[in-house]
Amino acid sequence: MNSKDLAIGVLSTTAVIMLVGILIIDHSSAPAHASGMTGSGGDYILVTGELWEQEELLYVIDTAQNRLLTYKSNKSTGEIERASGEELSKYLTSGAPVTPSRPGRRP
Q1: Separation between Cα atoms, residue 27 and residue 23, nearest integer Å
Q2: Do residue 43 and residue 86 come from a single domain?
Q3: What is the pLDDT of residue 77?
Q4: Buried b (16+ CB within 10 A) or exposed e, 19-58
Q5: How far apart are CA 38 and CA 106, in angstroms?
Q6: What is the total count of domains within the chain?
């Protein structure tokens, strides 16, 4: 066995070990879901939610202005756009339940 055959054997073994490592890492990692997470800072409260599989929402509540802003993130296009903005007073002062406007329709 010469040095050329030994180098080919070592490189082949290393490649197989690396391939097995990549396959193990790829199949063992679970996707991270942030749906339902909340956070606050100053006059703002942030809540995340999932509308459909490809669209996630970010609800921003401005407590100083009593406004609810909704931003939509489309995973397939990677764009973030403002979906709606409403006064919170109509939800807080009326006695009857109010259905909020939908932030967008799925095409």
Answers
A1: 6
A2: yes
A3: 79
A4: eeeeeeeeeeeeeeeeeeeeeeeeeeeebbeebeeebbbb
A5: 25
A6: 2
Residues 7, 13, 15, 16, Cα dihedral to 10°? 160
User: Do both 88 and 53 map to the same domain?
Assistant: yes
Please give the pLDDT value at position 94: 56
Closest by CA to 39, choosing from 59, 15, 16, 66, is 59
**Strand order across the 38-41 sheet:** 38-41, 44-52, 55-62, 67-74, 79-87
Q: What range defines the domain where residue 1 resides?
A: 1-30
Token pair, residue 77, equals 């296009």
Q: Which residue has the higher pLDDT, 63 or 102?
A: 63
